[in-house]
Amino acid sequence: MAKILFDIAARDPAGLEDGHLLMEIGPHIFSYVAIDKDKNLLHLRFYELDTHGNHDLAGEIAGIINGDNLLKAPAARKTMLYNFPESQLIPEACFHSGNSKDMAGLLHGDLNQGVVLNEKIEGKQQYNVYQVPAEIHDLLQRSFTGSKYWHYYSLWILLGQQQAAQPDSFISVLFYPNRILVHAVKNQQLYLLQSYMFGAAEDAGYYLLNICLQLELSPETTPILLSGMIDGSSALYTEIYKYFGQVSLETFPGASSIAALEEYPAHFFSPLLNLALCVS
Fold first, then answer.
1. Is the pTM of this model over 0.90?
2. Which of 2, 82, 103, 211 is most deeply packed, by most CB within 10 A?
3. Domain span including residue 94
4. In this predicted model, what pLDDT tens digit does every residue of 220-270 receive, in sequence order?
5. What is the CATH number of the domain that holds 229?
6. Is 93 exposed, middle or buried (0-12, 13-18, 19+ CB in 10 A)?
């Protein structure tokens, strides 16, 4: 059963008619951020979905949509951000929309059946070919008529291009409960964009050390940028800090001026907030 991990009301949501609602949907999470026409935060809510057994993901999300009044409120724009791991970047020269399904099956197998979608990465000669459970895509298309959708990875790449003063090589790590997303750049070129499940803190540290080994990046000198659900005093943070020499926590510009966010570490919600501004 879905449970709310965070529920942050920053402003009166009466202005949502002129605002933007960005929803993130993944195998284990459903979260959203609402901003007004001036890009001020109105509301942020984070649901953790059931991860035990063969849970009914579509049923859980349908229950959230039916029971959350803000999701049903009129909004000028509603955008869905799919965060499912079955995603692959394809060079534009090798891409053809007619073979997207075969390519997804070849790369990710045919065990998880779903609708295959694709989108051009803005500013790159690449396409993101990804798979979403068909019942989830159908549910969201019915529930949010006229909405747009992206894959998380596509906007994460776009956000990185828009941010100034990025180091030539770095690893950005986004933490969810028992899952990380890793974005690795070497010499200004994207080398890795992947999701990893982990159980213990040592697992996450192993993945990052192995990525450095495979990409020939130095753990001592390569900046590691952390964001999402990681506590600076946790064993997880300590494990990473033990092996890497340049660890920092990403923030959301202006977060300190939002009173409702004061009780939380600034890096907890920086990815979702930054992506909301990226597509607004």
1. no
2. 82
3. 87-132
4. 999 999 999 998 888 899 999 999 999 998 877 665 557 777 788 878 888
5. 3.30.420.260
6. exposed
